[in-house]
Amino acid sequence: QVELVESGGELAQSGGSLRLSCAASGSILSIVTMGWYRQGPGNQRELVATLTGGSTPTYADSVKGRFTISRGSAKNTVNLQMNSLKPEDTAIYYCNARIYSNPGKWDEYWGQGTQVTVSS
């Protein structure tokens, strides 16, 4: 079994910055993708940014140029640096990962979510 644990969500002012972190632990053979999704009030969950192997990161248009996803210094971690925050960034942010615990088939995992609130 694999567990994803997020940290870093809190209240920030418009124009400010926050850094989210996600750590994966458990039975991990290899990681296909790690990334972040978010769900704002009354909205569906949407992709924010993902990181796959050595590929170029993928970003939602709404966060391009403001958010940066990167691998953490610790193994099996990913960070999301969020700059120039806007009130519309307010959401619960979920870490997502596709992980091989055994060869041949990956499974998808979600963290419990961390609240980001941006005040105007």
Which sheet architecture does the biggest sheet show?
7 strands, mixed
Query: How many helices in DSSP terms?
Result: 0
Low-confidence stretches: none
The CA-CA distance between the termini, in Å, is 40 Å
Rounded to an integer in angstroms, the radius of gyration calculated over CA atoms is: 14 Å
Report mean pLDDT, rounded to a whole number: 96
Tally of DSSP β-strands: 11
Shape: elongated
User: What share of residues are in beta strands?
Assistant: over 45%
Order of helices and strands: EEEEEEEEEEE
Overall SS class: mainly beta
Helical residue percent band: under 10%
Could you outline the blueprint of secondary structure elements for this entry?
Layout (H helix, E strand, L loop, with lengths): L1 E6 L3 E3 L4 E9 L3 E10 L6 E7 L5 E2 L7 E5 L5 E6 L8 E12 L2 E6 L3 E6 L1
Parallel strand pairs: 2-11
Antiparallel strand pairs: 1-3, 3-8, 4-5, 4-9, 5-6, 7-8, 9-10, 9-11
Question: Can you describe this structure in just a few lines?
Answer:
With 120 residues, the chain is an all-beta fold. 0% of the residues lie in helices and 60% in strands. Strand 4 and strand 5 (46-52) form a beta hairpin.
Provide a descriptive summary of the structure in words.
With 120 residues, this protein is mostly beta strands. The chain has no helices and eleven strands.
